[in-house]
């Protein structure tokens, strides 16, 4: 899984989005501009989000893990947005229930087997109150990048 990039340019701190659509499009646009995803990525993520929502309310810290199939990925990377104000995402496993999301982990993973591993690691980290607290205490891009490398990639 060492092929998965943690690019500090894909870590967005204190950002504001009107809603999940603007968030997904904005993060995907940045990933596309840096050569990680195809232009089709944002639409694919939004389509997938309608069928398989990714919002997870946990530890008083809402998060979402939107992603698209590998055909929309050029190079594996993870982007993270730490929001100033939460946006609503539908809760995983529900089309009706929504949750406020403060952290968005946008996955762009080329290999399906890596995708499952990364998804599991992110959920495991965020469901651990200690690790979720450690993430919340990260103050800059470098600290978040190091956290992702240590807790998710390795």
Describe the protein's architecture and organization.
The chain has 154 residues and is α/β, with parallel strands linked by helices. The chain has a single domain, classed as Mannitol-specific EII, Chain A. It has five helices and five strands, in the order E-H-H-E-E-E-E-H-H-H. The protein has a five-stranded mixed beta sheet. Strand 2 and strand 3 (61-64) form a beta hairpin. Helix 1 (20-33) runs antiparallel to helix 2 (41-51). The termini are close together. The model has no long low-confidence stretch (mean pLDDT 91).
Rg, Å, rounded: 14 Å
Helix fraction by DSSP (H/I, runs of at least 4): 40-55%
- Using the coordinates shown, work out and report the CATH topology: Mannitol-specific EII, Chain A
**Annotation field: number of helices:** 5
The biggest beta sheet is recorded as:
5 strands, mixed
Distance between the termini: 8 Å
Strand order of the largest sheet: 1-4-5-3-2
CATH architecture: 3-Layer(aba) Sandwich
Number of domains: 1
Beta-strand level of the residues, as a percent range?
15-25%
What CATH first level would be assigned? Alpha Beta
Overall geometric form: globular
Q: Could you name the ranges where pLDDT drops below 50 across 5 or more consecutive residues?
A: none
The structure class reads: alpha/beta
Instruction: Give the ordered list of helices and strands.
Output: EHHEEEEHHH
Layout of secondary structure:
Elements (H helix, E strand, L loop, with lengths): L10 E5 L4 H14 L7 H11 L3 E4 L2 E4 L12 E14 L7 E11 L3 H15 L2 H9 L3 H13 L1
Parallel strand pairs: 1-4, 3-5
Antiparallel strand pairs: 2-3, 4-5
């Amino acid at each position: 899984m060492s092929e998965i990039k943690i690019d500090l340019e894909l870590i967005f701190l204190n950002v504001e989005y009107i809603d999940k659509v603007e968030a997904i499009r904005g993060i995907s646009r940045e990933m596309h501009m840096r050569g990680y995803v195809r232009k089709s990525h944002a639409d694919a993520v939004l389509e997938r989000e309608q069928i398989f929502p990714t919002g997870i309310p946990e530890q008083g810290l809402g998060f979402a893990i939107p992603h698209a199939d590998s055909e929309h990925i050029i190079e594996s990377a993870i982007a993270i947005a730490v929001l100033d104000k939460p946006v609503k995402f539908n809760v995983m496993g529900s089309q009706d229930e929504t949750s406020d999301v403060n952290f968005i982990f946008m996955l762009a993973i080329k290999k399906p087997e890596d995708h499952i591993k990364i998804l599991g690691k992110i959920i495991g980290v965020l469901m651990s109150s200690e690790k979720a607290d450690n993430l919340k205490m990260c103050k800059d891009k470098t600290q978040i990048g190091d956290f992702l490398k240590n807790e998710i990639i390795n």
